[in-house]
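Q: Could you predict the 3D structure of Probable 26S proteasome regulatory subunit p27?
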Amino acid sequence: MVATNVKAETMSLMDKRTAVEVEMNSIIARLTQPGAPGLSGNLVDSEGFPRTDIDIPVVRSERRRLAELRNDHNEITEKINQNIQILHAARVGNKSTSFKSSDNGDGSDTQISSTVDAVASTPPQNILLRHSPDSMDVDVLVSRPFAMVDEIADASPAAEDGLQLGDQILKFGSVEAGDNLLQRLSSEAQSNVDRTVPVIIIRQGTVINLTVTPRTWQGRGLMGCHFRIL
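A: Sure. Here are the predicted structure tokens for Probable 26S proteasome regulatory subunit p27:
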């Protein structure tokens, strides 16, 4: 019962996190559209006066809201990861019980065991709970992205290769997690100029595999995008 309740809560949290991501992507798209100030651009002109080409109160409001959503996203992700750890730990106790009571007729223990077994051999950063619809089950991917695309230039290598604003990075080449992530992402791009780099992202709750090719173009950098470390 505990595993079932935790699983249901995790599914609900995944839905909530997806809704947060959708709202974040919408705000990012508005702030980074042509003529907009971006996520952190100046709101004053070169002479120090408020810019007249943008609605400054709206921009400030959306930036505040984006900061709130990022905090919410981090909290939700942390709770999801905690739930996964609970399911992972419960496997040891539930597995033997499941086998002993597999002839009960209701199949409840077996279902709980299969729920935990599905995550037992997978790293906590990227865990799949797989079940059938007849037992209230769906596929749920619980992941721990380490970065998010928060700026991307039109016609840049990143944009042409399929990256989008709000994409969350699970893996970029050999970079998955750890320290000095921005430096390692930059090094990964620089060491793979004109070569494809496999990238795994989460976009609105869906895991997507891409390949990007760092290369020189008319803009800055080799990718034309900016990663924010989560």
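Q: Anything worth pointing out?
A: DSSP finds five helices and seven strands in the chain.
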